[in-house]
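Pasting as-is:
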Amino acid sequence: MPSPSMASVRPPPRARARPGAEQARIAELHADIAGQRASLAGARAALARAEVELRYTRVLAPFDGVTTARLVRLGDYVAPAPHSLR
């Protein structure tokens, strides 16, 4: 436990930066936060677009049926045509 005489001893004051430097740093950090929020919004928009495009990768027939032959393989480019599946 410190003695009563030690309690009144204060450490030397910290050297402080220029008063305007702190405000400039705060403004810089606010600008950085705004930039990061914009990047996040862009990433969310890209994710939403990718999710929409992913929905177009599934081909569904308007009726039930059985595929007997596949004329294209995974990764092939195809155009809308009735001859892709039999």
